[in-house]
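I'll show a typical protein example:
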Amino acid sequence: DPVTDMTPVETLTSGEDNTTYDAGYYEPATIGDYVWTDTDADGVQDGTESGLAGVTVTLTGTTGDGDAVTLTDVTDGSGLYLFENLEPGVYTVTVTKPAGTEFSAADQTTDDKDSDVNPSGVMPAETLVSGEDNRTYDAGIFELASIGDFVWNDTNGNGIQDALEPGIGGVTVTLTGTTGDGTPVTLTTTTAPDGSYIFDNLEPGDYKLTFT
C-alpha cells in the first residue's frame, strides 16, 4: 500500500508457502532550471544576461503507474524554477511568455546553457527515472525591437533637420541584417507623406538601412 507501506493481511494455512509478497521502491525525481532575458536573442545564456522573475512554468505528464500530473511554479528573483518530489515518469515543461515577448530559438549550443523551448513555449518531453535531478530545462525570452525615423528635404544642405524643412514621402527604405540566432532578414517599406518610416516587431540582431 503506497500510503501505509503495509501489505494486505494474509491468512497462512498449514503448510502454505507464499512467496508472492513484493515491494517496489523509488526515489523522488526533480526537474527544472532557468528562464532568462536573452537580450541579444541568440538563444545562449551570456554572462551579462539575467534571470527573469515572475514567469509561470507548468509541468504536465504521467507517472510510471499512469497517474496524470499537472503542477505550476513561478520563477523566483533569479529566474529559477523547480519541480521536486516527483514520481518517475514522462514529463513536459511549458513556459508562459510575458506579454510583448518572444522565445529564443532552441538548441543553439551543444551544452546546457541554451534555450530549450519551441515557439509555443513547450520543451521536449523528459523521462525521469528514480532519483534523477535534471536541472537543464531553460528558456530564453526577449522583447521585440524597432528601428526607423525620417527622410526629409534638406533644403540648405547642412545635414540637420531644420524646423521648416519638409519630410519626403514615397521613398523606399530597405532593412537588411541578421537576427541574434543567425536568421537573415530583408524588409522594405516606403516613407509616409510626412517622411516618417518604421520597421517594428524585429528580433534583436545586427541591421542596416538603405535609402533609395
Q: What stands out?
A: The two ends are 78 Å apart (CA to CA). The mean pLDDT is 92.
